[in-house]
Write a structure and sequence with these properties.
The chain has 305 residues and is of the alpha/beta class. It has 9 helices and 12 strands. It has a 9-stranded mixed beta sheet, sandwiched between helices. It has a 3-stranded mixed beta sheet with strand order 6-5-8, with helices on one face. A hairpin with a 6-residue loop joins strand 11 and strand 12. It is globular, with a radius of gyration of 18 Å.
């Protein structure tokens, strides 16, 4: 049964969540001269980063479609240390542009990451990964670094990186039931943790807004972005699990679709709880170039201003 609530209730250890893009133009609007909503996306992302800090999370659970990935299994990074760089400018698809790098070192909450692996590996297609007995940092790149970078500079919570399997390229719609189930089970485990957790979904929207883009044009692109925005505005599961899924199947090519569906499954945990009212807010939704991006936040209603 699909839930349809704008305000939901929870007394969970999950203290909030957000959808934040990893696309170049949300991070650096100057790449396209601040046009087509890129400035608005950047400002909204910084705003949601400041809001996340106010929630005082101990851990950021970050789902990524562009990290390390297995064919069918979801992947949790268990290493204490993660590092790497995001290369900015590649989305221009202009070989004459001098790209630049944004690098980061992140710290994993290894204890909670291990708990997730131990509790889920026998009931879900999920496994953990270490870099040579935890002695070598695991790599991170634009899918993880860019969303995390919108947090205030002085704020460095630990992370748990959740990698989406590369089956999502051709089978993301078929994965919907599994994604909902995994999100729900993750939510229950997090509720039993004494730690405060915020989920960040690293997500861009449809990649088929422009004929001249690398993925071509699909009339399904704007409807996909609209359905994603409707979900972010209302927390109505139908919008993401059915309408967005329909447009994804038609060719929207959203890399972040699986993460958003997983988050909606996690929201089922708090939908069925009682306690502090939750709300959601769509803060920006644009496609500055061939792909769409949105900023949205989900959390206790009394934290929204």
């Amino acid at each position: 049964v699909l839930q349809s609530h704008h305000k939901i209730l929870t007394n969970a250890k999950i203290v909030g969540g957000a959808v934040i893009p990893h696309g170049d133009f949300a991070y650096d609007p100057s790449l396209i001269h601040g046009k087509n909503g890129s400035k608005e996306l950047h400002k909204a992302a910084l705003r949601v980063g400041r809001w996340i800090k106010l929630l005082e999370p101990d851990v950021i659970l970050l789902s990524t479609p562009h990290g390390m990935e297995l064919a069918e299994d979801f992947l949790i990074y268990q290493n204490d240390m993660l590092n790497g760089c995001a290369e900015l400018g590649g989305d221009l698809h202009n070989k004459s542009f001098p790209s630049y790098k944004v690098c980061a070192n992140l710290s994993t909450d290894a204890e909670l990451a291990t708990s997730l692996v131990q509790n889920l590996q026998h009931k879900q297609r999920l496994t953990g990964i270490l870099g040579f007995a935890n002695s070598m940092p695991l790599p991170v790149s634009w899918g993880e670094i860019i969303p995390y970078s919108f947090l205030p500079e002085e704020f460095h919570p630990k992370v748990i990186i959740l990698g989406i399997p590369y089956s999502r390229y051709n089978h993301s719609v078929e994965m919907v039931p599994e994604l909902v189930d995994l999100g729900y089970n993750i939510g229950h485990i997090l509720n039993e943790s004494p730690k405060r957790v915020v989920l960040i979904v690293s997500s861009d929207l449809a990649h088929t807004h422009q004929t001249e883009g690398p993925y071509g044009y699909c009339s399904c692109a704007q409807p996909f972005d609209d359905a994603s925005g409707a979900w972010a505005s209302t927390m109505d599961s139908w919008n993401i699990r059915k309408e967005a899924a329909k447009q994804q199947a038609l060719g929207a090519k959203s890399c972040g679709f699986p993460g958003m569906v997983l988050f909606d499954g996690l929201l089922d945990v708090v939908r069925n709880s009682s306690g502090t009212p939750w709300a959601s807010q769509l803060m920006a939704n644009f496609h500055p170039t061939y792909y769409g991006m949105m900023i949205a936040r989900f959390g206790p209603q009394n934290t929204f201003t």
